[in-house]
């Protein structure tokens, strides 16, 4: 690969990094444009507003598409590995940000376009990725990753509970009270177990209401489970980061977490990093 | 008992264990079939679909029943202690998986069958039991077991609260606002305390709404209790696993469990980690 | 006070204590009767059942009242300090358990009676008090007591939030959308903030729905506060009870939590309970 | 600045402090008046009551305004730095407490006045600020401050989730099922994700209900995140206050903060609590 031209390097700094003032300014404008394009989507979906300003919204959408398209091409141009960028998660999101207006040329009534246009919001995360808030997101993600297996077991149990209760309610209440099928019963069971409680389908028989009571108490109690899992993991992750508690074990007593700067074990007093060569006594 | 024939041993390995490739393949297919049979139950309960494909679903159900019956007989045949298996929790579940189609021969409209067929889902857990996810489930179960007594006290208090509030609302609001009996009042109180809030029965009088406010605030606050109990137990269980409460014995009096950070034996006061060699001063 | 007669002493053992087999049997029967009397109240409130068995329920109520009255008089008779018992919390509850049937002689339609009869349920707690479950209740109570001040601050903030939001919604939505007064607005705000969400009153205007969104997100986020407070307190209370961590401080280094049986400080190795008289060296 | 006159000093003590009996009495009366003025606002908003006592409420409002105005002027007069007080948060709240009645002279139907009058409730916090409850509020605030960044990341993720799900539901369910625009879809998504579940808008199609199930499970699971963040922070804040991270300096190298359980200095390895006197062997 030839050495990148100065223009490409400058563009790369501005578009992909935030170390320079220009890079930060670019990112700020990008966020403003993304949010503006989102606002247009939101307002465009309100019928009263759409009827009055629909044309303007269309124009604006073309403007945003143009900008995002130029930006996408520039990203492709200045990226050191264009193919890798193009197929990365954010590369695909960037491409999706450009597509809606073009698709609309062919299918004028494609409802799906709206969702694609909303997905542009995900691009905000790319910009934020470069900022220091991500350290905190890392905490959350590592806590979530640490509790993944526990959460899968939890979700499996919840799924079983919900299926059994859904089928039970379908049998007990039946279609005449809104439980027209087992999937609908499951929908109701999820609504109840998660304490959402829409109230669009509710038990009418005494037995149904008794089981509903059981489901609600269960849901109210097991909400503790994901919370407990996550809190314990997060407390773990934060304790390890406290600076005081990095994990290098004492070579003698194997006490594992030590202050970051510790030279001697705080339990047995032996040197944590003994002389590399055996001392000639 | 005579030594098991090679066939029985191989079957036992395949059906009850996952150590071999064949065993894993068998388990995977079993899960697929269980989920497929569940899907048929779900779809069969939707009237539109049932009217079109009802016959096919019946045929499929007979297929699943045949497979599960053969599997059940094989399990009985190859199990080292057939009686013990037959009366174990999962043995009974396995038997239940076979029954619905046969019962349907005699009672064609038995609604209960649907629930029995859904219970097949529990069989998935047996298969999962053999996988490493269960270590995580053990964590959760041990945390739940540790907090059992606290949770019983909590549920007793909630039951009392709910009964008193239910009776109060029945007296205040009365049948004309949907609180037609005390059990209905209790149902409403559970709905409100657990923050589900269906909205099928709601207080209409000022006094009733004031008490409802009280119930909601109570429910919102005491949701902390099961969460707190469980989180504290789980953090406990995880900490103990963390190796933080490691058992290092005193070199003199051999007292075995010590605080994780102990430097001196709490019984005889001698250093747990004596200087490796007396310093040549 | 003269020495109690043997009969009084035996009665006192049976009625107030659970150390003897007779005492335990008495308590078990008492719980059964309390729950049976509660069941009668619940069933009596269902109109269909009341119309058929109302007379039987009346008779049963008189039976329960007779039993509870005899029990109350016996308690008064055998208690070492009858006056103190009569005015204790459970003494008053015991008296209340007897009153409803007698009041009903004079006011045949007193709705309040139902609530008084339900309050009998509280008597179950007295019986349970003597059992070992109360250790767990003590944990919960001590955690709640420890977090009392924090919870008051929290409830004050929630009250302010709810009042301001209630007034705001009354102004924005107005009586035509169900927000007919500020108290009603507050009722709605509590319903929303606690994530109960009955749906009997819901915002209809765009501005109202925006504020509702704000209230919901707030409620969803600050549910963390009581949970966090309680969990932290409970973890604290449990850690101290672990048996490993009783609080007697080392006289030299002041390390405070030690194993219950510790004789020497685990940090500095000095005796936790030095010889009472200075050692004559 | 000249020395304050004795009157101004006395007033300052009474109005701004609670150290004296007069100061405490003043604060108590102030709270009573604030709550009374709030009660008048609440009752005044109930139409039935307003029609009967509206005139009295008007008179009372003028009384409160007069009192608060005098109090405000006195605060300005006796404060050592009047300007700073006037533009402080509570200074502005105090001014707002006086305005409503005066504004009402010019705009008789200003609905906004009600909200301004309710904001008086915030003044209660100023009074409480001087009490010892604030130590607890500080705990909560410091825990909230510590988790600010994590909570921003969390709210950003929730916003994205809610926007995408809202757009999705708008496309799937459409205006005929109440999802008349994307903002309305977002409002529904927030209602569902926060487990409030009003039930004013609910999915009717199978696909919509499936996605609703997903949203509910998500909301039920991620409620763990703010709880976990806050609990971990609060436990941290309380542990640090617990004296567990006490600063005991090394007697040789004087390194000051050590792990709570450290027996040896982590920098120089010398015993933190050397033997009180070398044992005479």
TrEMBL record, chains A, B, C, D:
Q: Which InterPro entries match?
A: Ion_trans_dom (IPR005821), VG_K_chnl (IPR028325), Volt_channel_dom_sf (IPR027359)
Q: Name one GO biological process term.
A: monoatomic ion transmembrane transport
Keyword DNA-binding tagged:
no
Keyword Transmembrane helix recorded: yes
Main localisation: membrane
How is the protein disposed in the membrane? Multi-pass membrane protein
UniProt keywords, alphabetically: Ion channel, Ion transport, Membrane, Potassium, Potassium channel, Potassium transport, Transmembrane, Transmembrane helix, Transport, Voltage-gated channel
Q: Can you say where in the cell this protein is located?
A: Membrane
- Start and end residues of each Ion transport domain: 25-239
Q: Which residues cross the membrane?
A: 29-49, 55-74, 151-172, 211-232
Record-linked PANTHER family: POTASSIUM VOLTAGE-GATED CHANNEL PROTEIN SHAB (PTHR11537:SF254), VOLTAGE-GATED POTASSIUM CHANNEL (PTHR11537)
Q: By what name is this protein known?
A: Potassium channel
Q: Which organism is it from?
A: Pseudomonas fluvialis
């Amino acid at each position: 690969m030839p050495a990148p031209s100065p223009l490409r390097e400058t563009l790369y700094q501005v578009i992909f990094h935030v170390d320079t003032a220009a890079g930060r300014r670019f990112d700020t404008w990008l966020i403003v444009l993304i949010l503006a394009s989102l606002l247009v989507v939101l307002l465009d979906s309100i019928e009263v507003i759409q009827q009055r300003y629909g044309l303007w919204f269309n124009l604006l959408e073309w403007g945003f598409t143009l900008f995002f398209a130029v930006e996408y091409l520039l990203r492709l141009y200045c990226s050191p590995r264009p193919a890798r960028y193009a197929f990365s998660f954010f590369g695909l999101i960037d491409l999706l940000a450009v597509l809606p207006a073009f698709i609309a040329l062919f299918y004028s009534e494609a409802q799906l376009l709206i969702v694609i246009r909303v997905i542009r919001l995900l691009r905000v995360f790319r910009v934020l990725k470069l900022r220091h808030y991500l350290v905190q997101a890392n905490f959350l993600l590592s806590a979530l990753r640490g509790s993944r297996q526990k959460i899968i077991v939890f979700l499996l149990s919840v799924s079983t509970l919900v299926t059994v209760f859904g089928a039970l309610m379908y049998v007990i209440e039946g279609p005449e009270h809104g439980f027209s099928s087992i999937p609908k019963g499951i929908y109701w069971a999820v609504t109840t177990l998660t304490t959402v409680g829409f109230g669009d389908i509710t038990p009418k028989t005494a037995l149904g209401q008794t089981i509903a009571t059981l489901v609600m108490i269960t849901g109210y109690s097991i909400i503790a489970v994901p919370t407990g899992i996550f809190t314990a993991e997060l407390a773990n992750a934060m304790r390890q980061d406290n600076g005081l508690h990095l994990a290098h074990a004492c070579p003698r007593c194997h006490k594992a977490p030590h202050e970051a700067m510790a030279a001697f074990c705080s339990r047995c007093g032996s040197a944590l990093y003994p002389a590399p060569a055996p001392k000639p006594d």
